[in-house]
Fold inorganic diphosphatase.
Amino acid sequence: TRFAIVHSISEDENGPISPLHDIPLFADEGQKTFNMVVEIPRWTNAKMEINLKEVLNPIKQDIKKGKLRFVANCFPHHGYIWNYGAIPQTWENPEILDESTGCKGDNDPIDVMEIGYRVCTNCFYYKGHISTLKLLKDKINNELLISAKKKSMAEAQEWEFQRTSNLLTSTLKKDQRVLGSSLATTRATTTMPLADFLGNSFPYVSKLPLQPFWWKSGASPSVAVAKRGEVLQVKVLGAIALIDEGETDWKIIAIDVKDPLAEQLKEISDVEKHLPGLLKATLEWLKIYKIPEGKPENQFAFNGEAKNREFALHIIEEVHKYWKLLIKKEAEAGGISCANVSNVDSPFKIEQKEAEEIVNKSPQPGPAQSVEPVGMYHPVQVV
């Protein structure tokens, strides 16, 4: 049984605020770094988001047809594979055609995927040869697809545990021998998150000879945890244009400025160099994550090409302009609550005392709801 946190109020040192309207766009305008509100920590499944319709826009779990929403685990991914959230003071206007995609906006703040080392729980990295990792992933994926066709889902899942454990153990032993030989200088090696292709929930993971990531990066577990509602300062690297049911849904790719890789990642082209396979995994995840719900694959503008930093900065500038129209009541809000405590030119501005009263009058959290398990993996074949 899983339990869900369904409501989160944002505050600063003065009291309640709107995470959409009161947190500034820029962390440092001169350096072009931005604030990011974490809605969904990496490798979690609950579909949390800034609620646009409620006053002060609390972060809440999305509900569909009366049920709390969770993203499915599409093998080999586990939950969200990055820290996922939104850039405040942005709005993808649903009444304006995006000049680069030809589709209107999705009526949300712009999404951002933070790709650094921050995770939400004990997550493990496997150091080995890039080619070996790719072969291992393909082998497990193919065998899982074959197994799922022949067995019940419960049997396939149990098979997955045992088979993956055996493959990992044997591969680790082989790589340890190779890494100690002269071949290590001629074959590229990398350190990849195990959960990027296996997930971090399997019971055997802790028994394998894997290093928790903070041992590798030098960060302590407390520093390494990205929390829901946390505000990160991020460097923008690029953008992907997802077309979701005919609407433009930009995904900004960014990295925490405090991340160990932040200095090395200056442009989208640097991502493949330092985090090989991550962009491909990102496109795959965005393409297939709705398939277990019975929906078709998502589509992309630009054939899925990740646009560069300059392009992404232009997109953020545009959606910030649309937000300015929204907060000044110069654009149709369409049900979006624009109440805020800090924008002096906004007719929606309220006093801090009123914001506190709104929060105090809000319903108290009810008993936790039990929900259907989401740990099961869904074998999805990408065409």
User: Anything to note?
Assistant: Residues 1-7, 120-130, 171-224 have pLDDT under 50 and may be disordered. The chain is about 25% helix and 20% strand. The chain has two domains: 7-121+225-379, 124-221. The first strand starts at residue 7 and ends at 8.
